[in-house]
Write a structure and sequence with these properties.
3 helices, mainly alpha, 90 residues
């Protein structure tokens, strides 16, 4: 396995990681900003108020997008395992 293959595998792993994490991060960010706006408007400064909606929104994203995420992880793992013979030969 040469440096080009190692860089390719690392790049693909980072791409898959970002693809899987991005929906959760975006939903957490959007819900957090919306809750912060509501807190600023109503002047309610309760710390737990922002935690529960974020938790529920992220759980909903996991329930809805879970099969898609598992499919991407499975495909990446399958591709990685099938490429092992090529890495050993070179």
């Amino acid at each position: 396995m040469g440096p080009d293959q190692a860089i390719n595998f690392a790049s693909e792993a980072l791409t898959v990681t970002l693809t899987l994490a991005l929906p959760l991060l975006v939903v957490g960010l959007v819900v957090g900003v919306l809750i912060s706006i509501v807190q600023a408007v109503t002047q309610i400064q309760e710390q737990t108020l922002s935690f529960v909606p974020k938790l529920l929104a992220m759980a909903a994203v996991l329930v809805i997008g879970g099969p898609w995420m598992v499919d991407i992880m499975t495909q990446y793992t399958r591709d990685l395992w099938t490429s092992i013979p090529e890495m050993v030969r070179k």
